[in-house]
Design brief:
The protein has four helices and 13 strands. The protein has 258 residues and is an alpha+beta fold. The strands form two sheets. It has a ten-stranded antiparallel β-sheet, with helices on one face. The protein is globular and about 55 Å long. The two termini are 24 Å apart.
């Protein structure tokens, strides 16, 4: 078994990590992950710190929940959806399982921007987003993710290290299946996953792919970095100065300082 490259660091030592899709969930604080303006009338509910949480927009059409995984810090299911009317028929839904909090925050930041823009205009951007799907996967191609297309209407993009993937269903033949899915895995273990139903604004997929290829390192305590992914990380201790870095290419996917 390969040596753990972080074994010489104290469990509570903070490290900076790339690529972020291998960093682990991090500390899940729903208020920070969602970033909704609760002080401006956005209802937020959480009985106890670290427990289940829910939030919604003042119009009660946009809602989001977090169901933590018992005994696993940071892990859980994050679900967000939009209804056509309060308590009415759902228009679309996104779900994340055990995802890095930075991915979650970037998607929900874009969602909030979309909601506020929708409220200030006569365009139903939450339901008729003009963003083309190409804007989402062109970011992946720019960072050397591979691209394959199946005859069943699915195209797949894989990271240079082969450990993360994004799938886009460009031919909708089954409305019950998601339009976008994403995940990362290492040593046969699924680290996290994401699913965007049909009707989800493509701008949210753009936010996800932009976060996946971001060169801004994320911070984690050593004890929170998944063991299966440690051999594939670029990392530095938080006290070391770092410059923006790119995710490691497939040929150099080894743990090393930036």
């Amino acid at each position: 078994m390969p040596r753990d490259p972080l074994s010489n660091l104290a469990p509570d030592r903070t490290v900076k990590i790339l690529p972020r899709y291998l960093a682990g969930p991090g500390h899940a604080d729903p208020r920070r992950v969602w970033g909704f303006p609760t002080e401006d009338g956005w209802p937020f509910h959480q009985k106890e710190r670290g427990g289940p949480a829910a939030a919604m927009s003042p119009c009660l059409r946009l809602w989001t929940t977090f169901e933590p995984q018992p005994g696993a810090a940071g892990k859980g299911i994050w679900t967000t959806g939009v209804n056509r009317a309060p308590s009415g028929r759902g228009a679309w839904r996104i779900s994340f399982g055990n995802a890095p909090v930075e991915l979650l925050n970037d998607v929900h930041t874009e969602l909030l921007d979309l909601y506020l823009e929708d409220q200030d205009s006569d365009r139903a951007l939450l339901f008729e987003d003009p963003t083309p799907a190409y804007d989402a996967y062109s970011l992946l191609l720019a960072y050397n993710w591979s691209h394959s297309v199946d005859t069943n209407g699915m195209q797949t993009f894989r990271s240079p290290d082969g450990l993360a993937a994004v799938q886009h269903r460009y031919a909708i033949m089954d409305t019950q299946k998601p339009t976008w899915t994403a995940w990362a895995e290492s040593q046969g273990q699924r680290l996290w996953s994401a699913s965007f139903s049909i009707g989800t604004p493509a701008s949210l997929a753009v936010a996800l792919t932009a976060s996946l290829v971001s060169t801004e390192p994320v911070h984690r305590a050593v004890k929170d970095v998944p063991l299966p992914s440690r051999q594939h990380l670029y990392y530095a201790t938080a006290t070391q100065p770092t410059a923006p870095a790119v995710p490691p290419p497939a040929s150099a996917a080894r743990s090393r300082p930036f």
